[in-house]
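Components:
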Amino acid sequence: MTLAELQSVGAASDALAGQGYLADRQLAMAVHLAVVLEQPLLLEGEAGVGKTEVARALATAVGAKLIRLQCHEGIDLHHAVYDWDYARQLLALRAAEGGVDEGELFARRFLLRRPLLEALESDPAQPVVLLIDEIDRADDEFEAFLLEFLSDFAITIPELGTIAARRRPIVVLTSNRTRELHDALKRRCLYHWIDYPTPERERAIVEVRLPGVPEAVAARVVAAVSRLREQGDLYKLPGVGETIVWAQALLALGDDASLDETLGVALKVHEDVLRVRERGVLEGV
Amino acid sequence: MSDPSGAEAGGALLTPLADGMVSRLGDLTSVLRAQGTRVGVGELLTAVRCLDEVECADREQGRMALRTVLCSERVDLERFDLAFTAVFGDGKVTAPDPLSELGAIEKAVLPSLAMADPSGSPAQDDAEMLPAAWSDAELLLEKDFARYTEAEMALARELIARLARRHPTRLSRRTRPSRRRGRVPDLRHTVHASLRTAGEPLHRRWRAPTERPRKVVLVCDVSGSMAPYARMLLQYMHACVTARRRVEAFAFGTRLTRITHELAGRDHDRALDRATAAVTDFSGGTRIGAAIAELNRVHGRRVGRGSVIVILSDGWDRGEPEQLEAEMARLSRAAYRLVWLNPLAAHPDYQPLARGMQAAVPHTDRLLAGNSLASLEQLATILEAM
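Structure:
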C-alpha cells in the first residue's frame, strides 16, 4: 500500500491492521486525517497503550522511512537538527596547517545530520514518517523551535543557508503529559487520546501479536488485566504491552502457569502487587 | 507655589505606595524640619520614589534609603536618626505585637508619635516607643492571615507577588558557553578559536550547564478548618502560577481538584473566583490521604520526579491515617523535597499531634508555619536555596 491509497478511514484502519496494529475507529480517523491534511498528529495516552507503535505501523504499512527523534531533557538544535563534526574539523585544520578558510571548514562533508535535517533532506521518492517521541521531556525553548519547524518544514544553518523539505513528512508526536504542552503547538496538531482498548479489542491484539496463542490464554490474560485496571487505587496500571508480555509468559510456562506468580509482568510497583494479592483480585481468573 | 503639572506628576509617583506610608513620611519630614533640617517637597518626592525601589517591608533598607535622600549635611544625620526613631519606633518588635490585634481603622487612629511614659518608670528598654513597626508592610508581615481585614489582604498582594517570584532551580542538561574552565568542552568555539591560531587549538573553550526552574507543586487544603487561611494561600498560589513556569496548583477538601488553569491569568480576583468555582468542596471536610492518593495516581506524571511539593494544610484529617502515611511515603519518594506549611505550627508550643500530622511528618523535609507573610517569606527563602 502506498500513501496515496490511504484515502479513507477504512483504508487507514486496514493499513495499520496489516502491520498488527488494531486501531479503533477514532485513531484510524486521526491517522487518515494526518495523512490527507498533511498535519502533525499529537498522540497522548497512558504509558504502554501503543503511541509510538502507531508511527512504526504507519511507516511500514505505506513503505515510508521512519525517522525517530527521541526527546530528552536538555535536547537542543545540535541534538535534533545538525551539528558539525568538530573532531574532523580540527584534524582538517591541523593537516592543512592553518591553510583552510572558514568556508571549507563548514562544508557539507563536516555536517552531521540529526533526525530533523534527515527528514527534510530525505529522498522525495520515498515518503517519511517523522516520529517525535516524548515531546514533553524537551524544554519550552525546544518546543518553540519545533513550532517553527512544523509550520515551515525548513531549517536555516547559518554557514550553509536555508534547507527546505523536498517533501513534507508525516509527523507523529507523542507526549506522556509530564507537563502541559504549549497551546500554540497543540493548535498546530491534530490530537488523539489513545485509551486502553476494550477487552474484545485487546484479545484481538494479543491474537494478532502472538500468532497461534491458545484462545484460553488470551482470554485469561485479558480478563486479568481488565480486573487490574478496574482497581481504582493502583499506582501504575498495566498497558497493552504488559498484556502481550503476560500472555507470552503464560505461553512459555505452559499449563501450570499461575497468574499470581507472574504478577510482576503486569505490575511494577510493590504496593500495587501487595494490594492485589491481599484483595484476591485475580481469584477465579 | 508649585505648578499644577508638577503636582500631577507627584501624584502619579505616589500611587504605588500605601497611603499610611506617605503620611508617615510627612510626619518624618515635619519632625526633621522642626529640628532645623531643610526638607522640601522635592526631597519628599524623591523619598517616596526611593522607597518604591527598595524592599518596602525591610525597615533597615528603608531607613538607609531615606537617610541618603533626606539628609544634606553631617548634622542632619543625627537629627534624622532621632526623627526616624520618633516616627517609626526603634524597630524592636515586642513579642506579641499589640498592634497586630487591631484592624486598619484602629491603627489609623493611633498616634504616630509616641510619648515617654509620664510615670517615669525605669522600664525604658523597649516600652518607650510604642508603634514599633516601620511600616504597614512590616506590621502585616507577622500578622496571622486569619485576622486580616479586606484592606490588609489588598496591601499584602504586592508582597506576596514578590515572594512568589523566588523559586527553586536545578541544573539543566542544556549547556551554554562559559568563561570558566569546566568539564564540558565547547568544541564549536574551540574550532572557531583555532582558526585564528593556524589550526592549532591553543585556546580551549568550555561549556557549563544552565539553571532551570525546578517544578513546584502546591497543594492547598481548603476544608472548613483551613477557611481563614485558604484565601491568602490561594492568593500566594495564584501569584506563583502567574509569576513563573513549571508550577502546578491543586486544592483539596474531600477530593482533589487541579486549579492550575483556573489560577492562570493576571486578573487576580477573576482567577480566584474561577478557582473557587472549580473547587466543589470548599469549606467542607478533609480527607488528606484520599487527596494525596489522587495526586499520586491521577496526576502522578504531572507531579513527576524531582519536583518540590508544598502542602498547605493544618493536618486535621478525617480519613484513615494509614492511607495518609502510605501516600505521603509514595509522594516523598518521587519528590525532590516535600515541605508542609501548617498554620497551627505558628504556635510556639505546637506539637504535630493531630493524627494526620503524625502520619505525615516523618515524610516531610520541612515543617513551616504558613500563617503569615513572614512564614511565606521563609518558604520563599527555602525554595530559593534548593
